[in-house]
Amino acid sequence: MTPAPPGPASGRGPDRHRDSCPCHGVGPVPFPTRSAIGAAVGAVLGVEDPAEAERVAARLRALLTRLPWAARAGFHAGIGVLEATSWLVGGGPLAGLGPQRCDAVVRAVAARAEPVAFALKTMMIMARSADRWVPEPGETSRDPWLDCVPVTEWPRRSTADAVVVGSGAGGAVVALELARRGLRTVVVEEGRRFTTADFRGRPPVERFTELYRDGGATVALGRRPVLLPTACGVGGTTLVNSGTCYRTPEAVQDDWRRRWGLPWDLDPLLDEVERILRVAPQPLGVLGRNGELALLGAARLGWRAAPLRRNAPGCRGRGECVAGCPSGAKYGVHLSVLPGACAAGARIVTGARAERILVERGRAAGVVLSPSGAASALGGLPGTARTVWGLSGTDRTEILAPVVVVCAGALQTPLLLRRSGLGDHPHLGRNLRIHPAVSVAGVFDEPVTAWRGVLQSVGIEELHGEGVLIEATGGPPGLSSFVPPGVGRELRSVDGDRLAVLGAMVADGPRGRVYGRRRALLRYDLGPAEAIRLRRAIAAMAEVLFAAGAREVLTGLPGRPRAHSADLLAAVPLDGLHLAGFHPTGTARMGAPEAACPVDPGGRLRGVRGVWVADASVLPTCPTVNPQLTVMAMALAIARRLSGRA
Amino acid sequence: MTGTTRDGRPILLRLDAVVDGPLVPWGEVTARASGRLTVGGLADDVPVTGTIEIAPLTRRRIRYRLSSGDHRLDGWKSIDPRRPVRSMTTLPVTISSASGQIAAEGVLRFDLRRDLLPFLGGLRPGGDAGPDPLASRWRGRPGRLEVWYSTLSDPVSGAGVWIHHELVAPADGSPAYTHGWAAVFPADGPPVLGRFGPDPLRPGAHPFSAGEVTMGPATLTGRAGDLGWRLTRSGGGDVLYTFPAWAWRREILPAAQIVTAPAARFTGTVSYGGRRLDLDGAPGATARIYGHGNARTWGWLHADLGGGDVLEIVAAVSTRPGLNRLRPLPLLRLRVDGRDWPAGDPLLNAARFTARLGLPHWSVRGRVGDRRISVTVTLPPGQTLAVDYADPDGAPAVCHNSERASATVVVETRAGGRWRREREWRLDGTAHAEIGSRDAGAVRRSPP
């Protein structure tokens, strides 16, 4: 679809309607736009300037091209719902209605089909966010060298001592350890390499859809859908995480040792990982007003709170972590661990999807790779993804290796094992925990500008014992986990500059499951314990914000979207609450009980020799904190066991 | 197989493979491969050797690992049951330098119409004759005949020497015995024959030891009448399977012959009638026969063509009812530059040759693929011995043997619609040949 140029209406559509409709005889001038998406943007976001609406619509169309077909279809279905409602309520297409009627239409949709309005609003806010973005000033830092080779240039037949599938937190550490032990190590990465230069000069929203699997639209289905964005690129989710580095709580380690028979003492490994990542408390200077308000609120309540420990030694507080650090300050594994691995001889094959693990006579023999969608984007392989998948076995790339370490993440590891005929364990893919997260915002009289400063800046650990971890989390406009309430004029009335945003993650049980072999189909349902913790988290965050001086708190709860005190918030039903999960774990649980754990306490996949798992999927329970350090320490332990050092 | 590298350079790989085990799809076999590799700008028809790991079902893979002095080639076909033909005919390979640096990467394709026959031709059963191809195979069974024989030509005097050791286990169950003979074919006189035995086989470390005669892995000593010999054998090359290796190993045929040292060198002395041959690296061969007995009629030729090249022919008519009415079946092996021709199973290839046995001339002709061969043998009447002996079934046999035979070998190739002479050898008094029969009348007297 080609967007119509904004400008005075001509032709028969809107003008004819404007002439014939009594509502347009006097009063506000209707939108002179003929683009359905532009009209929808104007209506949902309450944008009355048609030029701005069309500009956002154009960005939206570009955004849609990078989303999976299901998300595109959902979006167009949502536009269809808006149009249908427009005909029912306004008697004509949305593009021909005036602002008041448009507002009435979107409010009607929000009242009767809130998920539709929410989805449209979220995508439109994302698209509009580029308007407010300012490029990072200064010179681009030079990233360390990585030995990355696109799969289209990698020999179709090669051998290695070990293949590591995935280059995220787990895979990078395993590669470093194995390469340092002298093993010829090949890391297979489905995404491409992103450099700091790639993150500069482009708005976060444009980077966002490239960096994330399915354009960031991964959703776990259940009684309420949960957004589960995971990154896809060299460095994995450490490319896009907030850089928060919590050590594995002692209670969690005790539980893993006692209940699950894990032999590890993670503390020395955590020390080592912290040194590699240069973890340090975030200096106050770049916290931003959002973090300062969180500290202030917690201090007034007498709650434990402090700037978070992060692996971002030179952070300038751009707040764009979720779309890749444009300063190169966040020390993700692509900057901190993989360069060391490559210097020790490891090589990284990019744009390569691990189709399956070769198993012969009960032992790993290598991996079969095919070019992923990222490979065609890299060039060297003409054609669409369809032709890529259509390649026969002889055209695929194969690497023979006696050791295969699966570090594809909790959502992809079960799929790879199933594709390889290794998915027989009844608990593989089960026990998915996502560390569900919820955000609230406080409305302040003063400007807050939550996206200036460190994205995730302050941790409030007062309720950690109850499974609730509160973190001040800003984020660039449109990419924040907090979505302002309302649609149309109500949405426009929310002044984003005066919002301070807190997020909370609650410890959860094994409530989800990963289905599928090629594409992950996710299911997740909150349990009663998680619901109680979520309500407690929302109330606690409201308390902090009110203590810091907020005059109103936007709760995200459809039943009570705005609150002026924290009282009774813990009792409000969670119906319609939009959840996200950023820490999927546990789908290939590691532990001593054979019947309950697909992976043994040493990290070996049960039932086959030579296949190891070393990513977030092995965590037996929710680590109750941001899991980056835990995953890396665990991977280090497994890699040492593998290479005979432990 | 031909193909191209990723950057468009041509690759040409020609291989012969020797399979040491039974080639069954459900098994895993490693074949020894040798051939030549050409990669544009990298290798120009360089010799390569290595292995082919054949496991199409158990591993779904046929892996080629070859090396030359400077390069390593590693690649494998990944067998896809959905695309069996394509996956069996596509070989992605990586060529790296000796230091492991990747020098080229490409795909070789096996053209079924063009490459299949040569490939099958190049796929030969292996040369694994057991731990010691000279070791006695007799296990006490009656009706067996086992022969070790060596022939050589003295390049100095022009004489030929024939040393023949036999173990006969009569079919009637009477005790097995050994016997044999030695003969010298001087260039300037009639041949001299001396017999030894019968003696019981003396068990021990040597493959044959009886009476005064011993044949060890590298030594031959003994006396036979007026003849005496003390020789050491060196070299010889790989075993030459005149009969199929499977037939030799499994003892399926009534009898089978192999040449354990087809291009050996003999050093030592042979004395006869007061004369002495001092040998120093005299070319010759050592061969084995094991089976139920001699054929009804047979012809044999061993021609040392020099430089390790040899031609071995056994053309025989079976004693079995029915088969004894057929024409002689020639089993022919020509080894040139270490490659045996015709490739493939010698018994199957025998149908492609025809033999005309006679005295003093006999011949073998035939064509396999784009090559044909013509062999003419002459046993000079004045330098041919007639030796009579008894088979395990008691039947008498006579062989006419000369280690000063002459032979002409012509190999032609088909090119451009006509036959072109590729190689030709003429052996004048250095060929070793024999015509034998159980029935004296069966051997045709050819015109002189």
Q: Topology, pairings included?
A:
The complex is a heterodimer of chains A (646) and B (448).
Chain A: H1 13-20, H2 36-45, H3 50-65, H4 69-90, H5 99-112, H6 114-129, E1 148-150, E2 157-159, E3 162-165, H7 169-180, E4 185-188, H8 196-199, H9 204-211, E5 219-221, E6 226-227, H10 250-260, H11 266-277, E7 280-281, H12 289-301, E8 305-307, E9 309-310, H13 333-336, H14 338-343, E10 347-350, E11 352-360, E12 363-371, H15 373-378, H16 385-389, E13 397-400, E14 403-406, H17 413-419, E15 436-443, E16 456-460, E17 468-473, H18 489-492, E18 499-506, E19 512-515, E20 521-524, H19 528-548, E21 552-554, E22 562-563, E23 579-581, E24 611-613, H20 628-642
Parallel strand pairs in A: 1-10, 2-13, 3-4, 3-14, 4-10, 5-20, 6-23, 14-24
Antiparallel strand pairs in A: 5-6, 7-9, 8-16, 11-12, 12-13, 15-18, 15-21, 15-23, 16-17, 17-18, 19-20, 21-22
Helix pairs in contact in A: 2-3, 3-6, 4-5, 4-6, 5-6, 7-20, 11-20, 12-19
Chain B: E1 2-5, E2 10-19, E3 29-39, E4 43-55, E5 61-67, E6 71-78, H1 84-89, E7 90-97, E8 102-109, H2 112-122, E9 123-125, E10 144-153, E11 160-169, E12 177-185, E13 192-199, E14 208-210, E15 213-215, E16 219-224, E17 227-236, H3 245-250, E18 255-272, E19 275-291, E20 297-306, E21 309-317, E22 329-336, E23 339-341, H4 346-350, E24 353-356, E25 361-368, E26 371-378, E27 385-390, E28 396-415, E29 418-437
Parallel strand pairs in B: 2-9
Antiparallel strand pairs in B: 1-2, 1-8, 2-3, 3-4, 4-5, 5-6, 6-7, 7-8, 10-11, 10-19, 11-12, 12-13, 14-15, 15-16, 16-17, 17-18, 18-19, 20-21, 20-29, 21-22, 22-23, 24-25, 25-26, 26-28, 27-28, 28-29
